[in-house]
Amino acid sequence: MNTWIHRSFIMLSMLGIGLLSGASVYAHGGEDHGDAGKTPPPAIAITPRATAQSEDFELVAVLDESQPKNRRLLITVDRFKTNEPVSGAKLEIDAGGQNTSATEDNPGVYVASFAALNKLTAGSKLPLTISLETNDTSDLLSADLEIPAAPLNEAESRHRNTGYAAWGVGAAFILAAIIVLIARRRHPKKGAQ
Length: 193
Description:
It is a single chain. The chain has helices at about 1-25, 115-120, 155-185; strands at about 50-55, 55-65, 70-80, 90-95, 100-105, 110, 125-135, 140-145. It is of the alpha+beta class. It has two domains: about 1-20 and about 150-193; about 50-145, Beta-1,3-xylanase, CBM31 domain (Immunoglobulin-like, Sandwich), CATH 2.60.40.2450. The chain has an eight-stranded antiparallel beta sheet with strand order 1-2-3-6-5-4-7-8. A hairpin with a 3-residue loop joins strand 1 and strand 2. Helix 1 (about 1-25) packs antiparallel against helix 3 (about 155-185). The longest helix has about 35 residues, at about 155-185. Keywords: Membrane, Signal, Transmembrane, Transmembrane helix.
């Protein structure tokens, strides 16, 4: 039975070593893999936006954060069927109980600013109700402007992953110790009382 104990111990030790070696394999930089001539794609920051559509209109509202203390809402309005910009429209916006009107900046692009935009934080949502009126028709559109939660930085993400590996290795060694103790109690050495 001694061979069974030794085989179990060796197998569990190999499992522990395998778990330990796997914990140190992470993506990292600083090595040339033949990508030196390639230009990385540009980083595109996704800005918070809201979309709405009806039978007549399609609307996209984007939060302009170029001036953090004076945020603006850029609203693009197109005709739904033809995709042509809607110029000369009158836009009234209800944002969480605060009413304001938008002014046309470019053909089909309207700008509005109000205090609720400056109070938005990561992970929040602002309901928008937009009244749109042109010479020939009018419509009421609603959408939610969602501010995404802040992403984890690389150090926080790596720290979370290494915790699982450490717990796995610890559990493997505890399991090996329990098996060795049980085997010794079942099969005591000859001559021991």
